[in-house]
């Protein structure tokens, strides 16, 4: 039983100062106020504490060696974005303290400070932390209620997307979702459905690129018994399955002009006609369509019907690529690592250096690539803390600062040409060809899914050659793939 005179912990504070006496005195004062206080002598040590457990307030000196307070501030907010930070600074460093507040610090206090002043600023910072926690809990409940929990990100681009999504979800307007492969277009469509009046009804997805053209019409519209060879019984199509709900038509630009014409008629009339039947059936379906192509260019080049484009593009939702919102990488990485830890007996944690490493990358594979990188690191890392070397990044995706060299950006010498004296070394011709083949196959698989015949046709090789190349390149065929 806790004694009534024992102070109840009021918040968790980390005090960082390379001067032992100042650090100890400050910590002693705060403990006397009932706070739970940890101490660190260096910025690196402080980052380790932040990575291991919850801290409500970071109270750090500005002038420290080897890592100063501003650097610690930036790295600490990457590890814990909602962390409150108060900078301790000498009177002559006020400009630096103001800069710290611009970078995300809550407040600053000048040394030597009075005990009352410190107590007041700490109380204000912790009150703000409690308010933010309450807002975050409300936001979590809101996201779960409205199906937005999977749309991770605090960037302006994601906030704009979420705001627009919530507005259009309340109507029955048809939505066209445009974004590169791997950006999460289906997650957006699911969130749209979850926040609509149809949320209690089915959400039915179909990937047009994963179904052969001959089967796509039957898949969407259904067929009568005997309509074609193999049609041994009458089958409802996905339009009927989605009645009163939402039908998500992914990669709609992969369809043929003939199919586009039939889809247009269905959208105009609100009726479907099963293959082999003459009777039309009424359906009440909200349509969300998606594409990773420039659909306006597809229309201009006569590969996609203009009238269908206008029918689908009532409201456009653009999902930004990850390279346009790199500030979301820390939150996304933590989100994916949390999911990986839930499936693993050995939980991992992200180091601040690993997060910095990931943010130097442009992610050509977008969010899906980041998810794969995190899952791979969680499965293969030797230590519990994930380090930069646990995340091998493709050279062509690195973000190089201006006027720098590949070596300065940390590129391995086998991935970028470098000068060694008067001799230059670089990738072999065979490795360049192999990388090009791998990228081409992966991109074709993303477009055509399990239909390897279409993949092979696009790449100009036989199905047997495609299978052989995938085996040599260690590319696993999609589940259900057929030669």
UniProtKB/TrEMBL annotation:
<dbReference type="InterPro" id="IPR003593">
    <property type="entry name" value="AAA+_ATPase"/>
</dbReference>
<dbReference type="GO" id="GO:0006355">
    <property type="term" value="P:regulation of DNA-templated transcription"/>
</dbReference>
<protein>
    <submittedName>
        <fullName>Sigma-54-dependent Fis family transcriptional regulator</fullName>
    </submittedName>
</protein>
<dbReference type="Pfam" id="PF00158">
    <property type="entry name" value="Sigma54_activat"/>
</dbReference>
<feature type="domain" description="Sigma-54 factor interaction">
    <location>
        <begin position="151"/>
        <end position="379"/>
    </location>
</feature>
<dbReference type="InterPro" id="IPR002078">
    <property type="entry name" value="Sigma_54_int"/>
</dbReference>
<keyword id="KW-0805">Transcription regulation</keyword>
<dbReference type="InterPro" id="IPR025944">
    <property type="entry name" value="Sigma_54_int_dom_CS"/>
</dbReference>
<dbReference type="InterPro" id="IPR025662">
    <property type="entry name" value="Sigma_54_int_dom_ATP-bd_1"/>
</dbReference>
<dbReference type="InterPro" id="IPR009057">
    <property type="entry name" value="Homeodomain-like_sf"/>
</dbReference>
<feature type="modified residue" description="4-aspartylphosphate">
    <location>
        <position position="61"/>
    </location>
</feature>
<dbReference type="InterPro" id="IPR025943">
    <property type="entry name" value="Sigma_54_int_dom_ATP-bd_2"/>
</dbReference>
<keyword id="KW-0547">Nucleotide-binding</keyword>
<feature type="domain" description="Response regulatory">
    <location>
        <begin position="12"/>
        <end position="126"/>
    </location>
</feature>
<dbReference type="Pfam" id="PF00072">
    <property type="entry name" value="Response_reg"/>
</dbReference>
<dbReference type="GO" id="GO:0005524">
    <property type="term" value="F:ATP binding"/>
</dbReference>
<dbReference type="InterPro" id="IPR027417">
    <property type="entry name" value="P-loop_NTPase"/>
</dbReference>
<keyword id="KW-0804">Transcription</keyword>
<dbReference type="InterPro" id="IPR011006">
    <property type="entry name" value="CheY-like_superfamily"/>
</dbReference>
<keyword id="KW-0067">ATP-binding</keyword>
<dbReference type="InterPro" id="IPR002197">
    <property type="entry name" value="HTH_Fis"/>
</dbReference>
<dbReference type="InterPro" id="IPR001789">
    <property type="entry name" value="Sig_transdc_resp-reg_receiver"/>
</dbReference>
<dbReference type="GO" id="GO:0000160">
    <property type="term" value="P:phosphorelay signal transduction system"/>
</dbReference>
<dbReference type="InterPro" id="IPR058031">
    <property type="entry name" value="AAA_lid_NorR"/>
</dbReference>
<keyword id="KW-0597">Phosphoprotein</keyword>
<keyword id="KW-0238">DNA-binding</keyword>
<dbReference type="Pfam" id="PF02954">
    <property type="entry name" value="HTH_8"/>
</dbReference>
<dbReference type="Pfam" id="PF25601">
    <property type="entry name" value="AAA_lid_14"/>
</dbReference>
<dbReference type="GO" id="GO:0043565">
    <property type="term" value="F:sequence-specific DNA binding"/>
</dbReference>
